[in-house]
Amino acid sequence: MPYFTAQGYALGTAWVSEMSGDTVGTVLVGGMVTVRNGAFAMRAGQTVHWYWDEEERFFNKTMMMADGHQVLCGERHILNEDGVSGGTEDQQAQALKDKYSRDYDTSGPSLSDRKTGIALPKPYVLYRGHDHYGDKIRIFAKCINSGRVFDHVDLMLMTQSL
Questions:
Q1: Nearest alpha-carbon partner for 46 in 54, 58, 38
Q2: What is the Cα–Cα distance from 90 to 137, expressed in whole angstroms?
Q3: Residue 155: beta bridge partners?
Q4: Taking the CA atoms of the chain, what radius of gyration do you get in angstroms?
Q5: Environment class of 42 (CB within 10 Å of its CB; exposed 0-12, middle 13-18, buried 19+)
Q6: Which of 16, 64, 68, 70 has the most CB atoms around it within 10 Å of its CB?
Q7: Would strands 69-71 and 119-123 be described as parallel, antiparallel, or unpaired?
Q8: Between these two residues, 4 and 51, which has the higher pLDDT value?
Q9: How far apart are CA 123 and CA 40, in angstroms?
Q10: Which residue from 136, 155, 134 is spatially nearest to 55, judged by alpha carbons?
């Protein structure tokens, strides 16, 4: 994966042609902005990094015990060769079911109709008490107020990390 860095937070959408919309894109490079949270709850004061929507499965959704230590909500977990994280057999079975049925789900819009490749904010959580380099280089803000999953949160962009 190429080395991506945050350059700011887009405040709107720019279009290639003036016939379809505004051709000017505005990006906030410092200060406070209210944005929609990603798939992980945030608390005030937490450092925030971004993740691609396809990476959601790489992070733990709930607090749990695994391999004799407590896994925090939002903590990265390493997947095995099948693309499934360690856990109980039921959790692994459910993860495999989700992995192989995701492309064939007929209850919602088809994959070709879904927008993908979206960068979303998420609290930065240490991996087993240590930094994970791939996550640490994506830090771009501090959370100002707490927010639930996909709720609006205020972020203070850290210009020194942009």
A1: 38
A2: 34
A3: 33, 143
A4: 18
A5: buried
A6: 64
A7: unpaired
A8: 51
A9: 7
A10: 134
Residue type, 139: I
Sequence-ordered list of residues with C-beta below 8 angstroms from that of 40, at least 6 positions apart, any chain? 59, 61, 73, 74, 122, 123, 149
Closest CA to 61 of 50, 51, 72, 45: 72
pTM of the prediction?
0.68
Contact 34, 121 (CB under 8 A): no
Q: Measured between alpha carbons, how far is 85 from 58 in angstroms, rounded to an integer?
A: 8
The tokens for 137 are 């280089």
Specify the pLDDT at position 49: 92
Query: What is the chain's mean pLDDT, rounded?
Result: 76
Q: What is the reported pLDDT for 105?
A: 45
- What are the residue ranges of helices labelled H in 5-161? 89-101, 133-136
**CA-wise closest residue to 48 among 160, 144, 131:** 144
Among 36-45, 61-70, 93-102, the least confident range = 93-102
Local structure of 111: helix, strand or coil = helix
Task: Give the closest residue to 6 by CA, choosing from 56, 59, 47.
Answer: 47
Please choose, from the candidates 154, 126, 133, the residue with its C-alpha nearest in 3D space to the C-alpha of residue 42: 154
CA dist 5 to 41, 50, 56, 104, 123, Å? 23, 10, 19, 33, 17
